[in-house]
Amino acid sequence: MAGLKSLAKDTAIYGLSSIVGRFLNYLLVPLYTAVLPAASGGYGVVSNVYAYTALILVLLTFGMETGFFRFANKQDEQPEKVYANSLLFVGGLSLCFVSLCMLFLHPISSFLEYPDHPDYVGMMIVVVALDSFQCIPFAYLRYKKRPIKFAAIKLFNIIGNIGLNLFFLLLCPYLAQHAPSTVSWFYNPDYLVGYIFVSNLIMSAVQMFFFIPELRGFSYRMDRVLMKRMISYSFPILIFGVVGILNQTIDKMIYPFLFDDRQEGLVQLGIYSATSKVAMVMAMFTQAFRYAYEPFVFGKNKDADNRKVYASAMKYFFIFSLLAFLAVMCYMDVLKYMVARDYWEGLSVVAIVMLAEILKGIYFNLSFWYKLTDETRWGAYFSLIGCAILLLMNIWLVPLYGYVASAWASVAGYGVITLLSYVIGQKKYPVHYPLHSMFLYLLLAGVLFFLSQYVIIENLFFRLAFRTALLIVFVVYVLKKDLPVRNIPVLNRLIKK
């Protein structure tokens, strides 16, 4: 239980940067949807460009985050040497990437169909190179169990980015109208989408200064033997990382190309991307859990009771994922105001997107078996299968059914690879997961979801009250079955008083 308490504590701290940070960041969605009307396709441009940068980020990090954790925890390796090799490899790769892309900036911009805005592409090239390099110091902070600094840097970046967006998208337009001389020397009212990328570039550059302590105090010497072993281990992780991020972004990358009218594709992509943000709770919880779980798994592998802990971690992840799903769906009448009204037509995808996130989280929990057994090639196989399903379904169904097909394609892709990982994992590294208990939670959540959506109550106040009661039913069941009040220290003390 001590291991689970440590995992819960780290998840909570990482969750501060992930959940609070993403919540603050997602406050930009109402801003973007307000200043970039759905019909303009501007938010579609933002989603499209960021989809490419997400893919490139995975390519440049090369799976070295997981590789670093694996080799830094080996008893026969020096963690500082592993860290130095990771920095040199990712830093060198990022530098080469920036140099080549800047040399061929205009052809790349034309290929991506942004010939009039190579500046968009150029800025994001630099951003993704900086972010990929910074992934290694972030991993080092996690290895050193310094979640507070990790969270502080993440939050500073997000808050700074929000501030710059508010400055460029709200304050500058106001000053341009009422005091034009104050901003006319640098501000262009027609460059709204571009200022989103400018804000990101500024904060990625500033963030580098916080890692100065983590970039000093050791020798930058590449150990070729160690580097070869790390690349061999990390390359399959790179493959399934690439395919994994394609599972999340390929629909946004190819979406404009699936329509005869590219502008219509960007409009639909903007609606789909904006309304998918309402499902942020699930993505934030999954990310926070991942930050704490990866170093926890590799460290816990040395203990005798590790498999029981992994099974318990899966159950609690599943329980709280279902709770997050129910919370979002029960309060959709409030959360929909995160986006402007002209985007509301896409709210039907929120439940589907959250289902895909749950499956992605389960798959991540299952994936540790091939990392611990050093059979990472299985991750590549699973990711390729999932990506193929996602790609084919998008190409086939999106022209017919629009963005709803993209959402269901994600569910299908993650569903298949989750099942495959479980079946094969039970043969390679068997773990006795509490499937019966998890099924009962799923059944209860399904019934409560059905009631919340299909019991018609016209009055908003009474509808929210009814749905809150349904949530309480789920929470009470959790407290009774798997999280008794007496096991929660704070509540236990209050009850005794």
Description:
The protein has helices at 2-26, 28-35, 42-61, 64-72, 79-103, 105-111, 118-143, 147-178, 192-207, 224-254, 262-276, 280-300, 306-330, 332-335, 350-366, 368-372, 377-401, 403-428, 435-454, 460-481, 489-496. Helix content is 78%, strand content 0%. It is built from 21 helices and no strands. α1 runs parallel beside α8 (147-178), α5 (79-103) runs antiparallel to α7 and α15 packs parallel to α18. The model is unreliable at 488-492 (pLDDT under 50). With 497 residues, the protein is an all-alpha fold. The protein starts with a helix and ends with a helix.
Write the topology of this structure.
Layout lengths: L1 H25 L1 H8 L6 H20 L2 H9 L6 H25 L1 H7 L6 H26 L3 H32 L13 H16 L16 H31 L7 H15 L3 H21 L5 H25 L1 H4 L14 H17 L1 H5 L4 H25 L1 H26 L6 H20 L5 H22 L7 H8 L1
Helix pairs in contact: 1-8, 1-12, 3-7, 3-10, 3-11, 4-5, 4-7, 4-10, 5-7, 7-9, 8-9, 10-17, 12-13, 12-15, 13-15, 13-19, 13-20, 15-18, 17-18, 19-20
Keywords: Cell membrane, Membrane, Transmembrane, Transmembrane helix
Protein name: Lipopolysaccharide biosynthesis protein
Subcellular location: Cell membrane
